[in-house]
Amino acid sequence: MKDYIATIVKNEKIAENVYAVTLDLGEPAKARCGQFGNLSVGGTHLLRRPIAICKIEGNTVTFCYQIKGEGTQRLKTLGVGEKLNVLMPLGNGFYVEETEKKVALVGGGVGVFPLISVLRQYGVDKEISAYIGYRNKGAVCGVEEFEKADKFTAVTDDGSYGEKMNAVQAFQADLAKGNRPDVVLACGPTPMLRALMKVTAEENLPCYVSLEERMGCGIGACLVCVCDMTDGKKARVCKDGPVFDACDVIL
Ligand SMILES: Cc1cc2nc3c(=O)[nH]c(=O)nc-3n(C[C@H](O)[C@H](O)[C@H](O)COP(=O)(O)OP(=O)(O)OC[C@H]3O[C@@H](n4cnc5c(N)ncnc54)[C@H](O)[C@@H]3O)c2cc1C
Ligand code: FES
Question: Which of 93, 128, 140, 163 supports an S-S bond with 34, CB 3.0-4.6 Å?
Answer without folding.
Answer: 93
